[in-house]
Design a protein that fits this description.
This is YceI family protein. By secondary structure, the protein is mostly beta strands. The chain contains 2 helices and 11 strands. 46% of the residues are buried.
Length: 189
């Protein structure tokens, strides 16, 4: 639930990252080498999870990060929230409602260099039929001809109606969810 939203945001943010001192255009996301995870708090205890399936498109030239763009779609039913019971619960109507909203999407609107190997991607995140602006800082580095985008940001699950009814009590499940991402993309040849 909260973790799933975090993972989604993280995946979206990673797909959008751009920037590096190396002159290459990174455009093919290597999903099998990439990961989106999240951490939320339930009754004060950190609980983590991840998403197993996502599609991403990315265009990034470190020499022109402001030209970067990305789109990410996460299959919400691919969540791993730590147990079968938790997975079954978070795909339901009160959490992600995957029957009506099977995917979360992120579409970038801007990428900004922050100095060094640090960047920030901004865009529109849509989860459960609600669209909100989202911003995620990230770092970029080259590794063996691939670009590696790593970052973390916090989202508020209630902005997306994730955890309705009795689950909207932030004393039980915190509103804030940390989304962490590690996206690997191949350079265009």
């Amino acid at each position: 639930m909260t973790r799933s939203l975090s993972v989604l945001l993280a995946s979206l943010s990673l797909a959008t990252f751009a920037g590096s001192a190396v002159a290459a255009n990174y455009g093919q996301v290597l999903a099998e080498r990439s990961a989106v995870s999240f951490v939320s708090k339930q009754m004060g205890v950190e609980v983590g999870g991840s998403f197993g399936k996502f599609d991403a498109s990315l265009q990034f030239d470190p020499a022109s990060p402001e030209q970067g763009r990305a789109r990410l779609e996460i299959e919400l039913a691919s969540i791993d929230a730590g147990s079968k019971d938790a997975n079954d619960e978070v795909v339901g109507k009160a959490w992600f409602n995957v029957k009506e909203h099977p995917r979360a999407t992120f579409e970038s609107t801007a990428v900004k260099a922050l100095g060094g190997n640090r960047f920030e991607v901004t865009g529109q995140l849509t989860i459960k039929g609600r669209t909100r602006p989202a911003t995620a800082p990230f770092t970029f580095r080259e590794d063996g001809g691939n670009g590696v985008f790593e970052g973390e940001f916090t989202l508020k699950r209630l902005d997306f109606a994730i955890g309705e009814g009795m689950w909207s009590d932030v004393g039980v499940v915190a509103d804030e969810v940390k989304v962490r991402f590690n996206v690997v993309a191949a350079a265009a040849r």
